[in-house]
Design goal:
The chain is an alpha/beta fold. Helices cover 37% and strands 15% of the residues. Strand 6 and strand 7 form a beta hairpin.
Length: 468
């Protein structure tokens, strides 16, 4: 919950990479081949938890246009937790923040803070508090939404769910009574998980990383950053920043109680970390070097580089050339993290800027948020979603919702991508059993694997299937 366990994908590239699409377009006349081809697809993100695939797909649209393909992409997001919906809107708002407001590097560190840290910088807290006011107006005023982010569509949310999004945004603001004691919640969760092993937790943390995650495509995660995250919930750190303010976007189960809010505390992941989406691999091979088991760069540094690329491409629609000298080479260094300074929110309202500019507009994209009720209607063969989607991504924790009839919402041809539990600390037998269940679902529903998994012996965070 709050982040995925697989890498960010360009889902449009996943779609056009299918042989069916290539064959269809090879049959075009010579005159047609000289013209741009408009390809419209519908993508369902089923319990995604974060907007990583949306960002990766939008960032790469310019490269498809350069090849003569005009993508028109309709994203549909369905999540069972309304606070995840609010958080996804906020993360999209950061990624598409107007360049007049902040530069790309500042935006990158802000995104990393909100995305993966239980404690954030004072600036990040102030941004969220101010942005929440702007987002409330955006989602409650259709004219404001059309002006600032016309590609967002919340019509699919029920009125109670829109109220839930507004509740979450209100809770994020700096108001008396909006308390989120994440340090306490995190420590309680760790104690409950480890039990009698709590006093020896550093050994357990090292075991989970070096004996489990590093053997499951998590080799880029460094010991010092992982241990610190397991202890505090702060995943992405840089020595020049102080992380001391609770990240309220990680609150769930919010219920208004007079002027205050009740909530369920922190109920997200405390074992894997937010590294999988952007921090395990990169196209820049220089940053993947290691020596004697020590990485030159942390997963944090890889995450920074990859998000810099995404934000650059979103803002400029041009290729990104990374300046390696700007990346910190902290892979083999244990940073000294001191005690967090005490934060005071009393006067924060007087410090807030107005983050109210229109978002960066990405042509050919529509992002539709759906009600959690659609989790059930998507299983109905006679629903309005029948034969509708070209690409579906299913998060590992939403697979249990799937009936065999779910496959009827896929068009023909189309692609289904399902997340495995590889990047968890579960026992290998449990991970293998879950992957086998995914294969059995595909076999029952007559889906064809996109590659021959029987001949490729590799560790897989996702499985891809086609509906022919």
């Amino acid at each position: 919950m709050f982040w995925g366990l697989s890498e960010a994908l360009d889902l449009f590239q996943e779609y056009i990479g299918k042989s069916n699409y290539q064959v269809e377009n090879e049959n075009l006349s010579p005159d047609s081949k000289n013209q741009d081809i408009t390809t419209e697809i519908n993508i369902l993100l089923f319990g995604l938890n974060d907007p990583r695939h949306i960002l990766a797909t939008m960032a790469n649209m310019y490269s498809h246009r350069a090849k003569g393909i005009n993508p028109v992409i309709n994203f549909y997001l369905v999540d069972g937790c309304i606070e995840i919906v609010a958080r996804n809107i906020a993360l999209l708002a950061i990624a598409l923040e107007n360049p007049k407001v902040m530069n790309i590097r500042s935006k990158t560190h802000l995104f990393m803070d909100i995305y993966g840290n239980t404690l954030v910088r004072a600036f990040s807290h102030q941004y969220v508090s101010a942005k929440s006011k702007s987002l409330i107006k955006t989602i409650t005023d259709s004219q404001c939404l059309e002006k600032k982010a016309p590609f967002l569509n919340i019509d699919g949310l029920k009125y109670r769910e829109r109220d839930g999004v507004e509740n979450a945004l209100n809770f994020w603001s700096s108001k008396e009574g909006n308390i989120f004691n994440i340090k306490q919640y995190w420590n309680e969760r760790v104690k409950k998980l480890l039990g009698t092993r709590y006093d020896y937790r550093e050994g357990q943390f090292d075991w989970d990383l070096n004996m489990v995650l590093k053997d499951r495509k998590g080799s880029q995660i460094c010991s010092q950053e992982y241990r610190y995250w397991r202890e505090t919930g702060v995943a992405f750190t840089f020595p020049e920043f102080e992380y001391n303010v609770p990240n309220k976007t990680l609150a769930a189960g919010l219920v208004r109680n007079g002027k205050k809010y009740l909530h369920r505390g922190y109920i997200g992941d405390i074992q894997t970390g937010p590294y999988a989406a952007f921090g395990l691999t990169t196209s820049d091979q220089r940053m993947l070097k290691s020596m004697h088991g020590q990485n030159d760069y942390r997963s944090t540094d890889i995450t920074e580089r990859n998000i810099l690329q995404i934000f650059h491409e979103l803002a400029t629609q041009m290729p990104y050339d990374h300046n390696l000298s700007q990346s910190r080479k902290y892979g083999s260094i244990r940073l000294q993290m001191g005690k967090g300074l005490t934060n005071c929110e009393e006067d924060v309202e007087n410090l807030l800027q107005d983050y109210n500019e229109p978002w960066i507009k990405i042509e050919g994209v529509k992002i539709n948020f759906l009600s959690s009720d659609e989790i059930l209607s998507l299983q109905d063969s006679n629903s309005r979603w029948a034969n509708f989607f070209d690409v579906i991504f299913v998060a590992h924790n939403y697979f249990s919702f799937l009936k065999d009839s779910f496959i009827d919402v896929l068009r023909s041809p189309s692609i289904l991508i399902m997340e495995t539990r590889l990047l968890t600390t579960e026992r290998k037998s449990a991970v293998d059993k879950f992957e086998e269940e995914l294969f059995q679902f595909a076999e029952r529903t007559h889906l064809k694997p996109c590659i021959n998994y029987d001949t490729i012996n590799s560790k897989r965070s996702i499985l891809k299937f086609q509906k022919i």
